Amino acid sequence: MSNLELDPREIHCGAEAGADREVLPGREVPLGGPRAMLVSRTLPGTRRRMIGAWCFVDAYGPQRAAMRVPPHPHTGLQTVSWLVEGEVLHLDSLGSRRHVRPGQLNLMTAGRGISHSEESPETMLHGVQLWVALPGEHRHVGPGFEHHPSLPVFAGPGFEATVVMGTLGGVSSPATAYSPLVGAELAVDGAARVPLTAGFEHGLLLLDGTIDELERGSMVYLAPGREELRLSGRGRVLLIGGEPFGEEIVMWWNFVGRTHDEIAAFRAEWMEGLESGASVFGSVAGFDGAPLPAPVLPGIRLKPRGRVR
């Protein structure tokens, strides 16, 4: 999914200390034009920008809507598409064409550059779109796409976990990850006790149902040091986490880089490619419509910063 804001703010990300537990409120963002689908964006937030390598979280639905995100570029990150309800079609410049449905994972690695689109007919949509920042040694890897129709599931006291990315409780997802992290959907029924990796920081996002201390539209941040997560109620929770990201990055529009000049070069390459039809980002076949032009860069230089304001 793209960041469709016409005047995107510079997003400051990197490594700094924070509180043991924080509530990260979401902000409502429209995706598209007058009939835009609304999403709740909890990462990046006003204070905390990342949780592990996770740097972007948009939750949407349940709502009846048509998703239409035209072809747009990415660099330096992975996109993770996770649905609770509905169906979305992914097209990319590698020639990939895959629907993602509930319980399945679409994972796209941008690396040095890729472009893609996402769309669905008007239907009930409920899901989450996430980005993972690639660490420096992997941020220029070749672009790639993975579709995982089934993922490992394990049960514990009061919960059943689908491991989407990384490892949870010794169970690992088959999806490619470039840093130590976890992404999982927890189906909670009663009093749950979920094992955690003590060196990870974590985030909890309520998807549906009623879970004590969790509210729709906000994410709860948990600092490193916990070996167990206790939840009570009935519902589904998205759990993300990872080792605190040890690099400062520049994140603007749909690009993750390290300097202003690098971001400016990505933007110029995309815009020049729209004119010439040839660029490192390639082109997306099968989408009925024009690609997204990049917004204008802000009038000040973008700076790499820490992950907490």
Automatic annotation (TrEMBL):
Keywords: Iron, Metal-binding
Residues involved in Fe cation binding: 72, 74, 116, 118
One Pfam family this sequence matches: Pirin_C
An MF annotation (GO) of this entry: metal ion binding
Manner of cofactor binding, per the entry note: Binds 1 Fe cation per subunit.
Record flagged with keyword Iron: yes
Cofactor: Fe cation
CDD domains: cupin_pirin_C
Residues in Pirin C-terminal domain copies: 186-273
Ranges where the Pirin N-terminal domain occurs: 40-132
Keyword Acetylation: no
PANTHER family reported for this sequence: PIRIN, PIRIN-RELATED
Family: Belongs to the pirin family.
Protein name listed in UniProt: Pirin
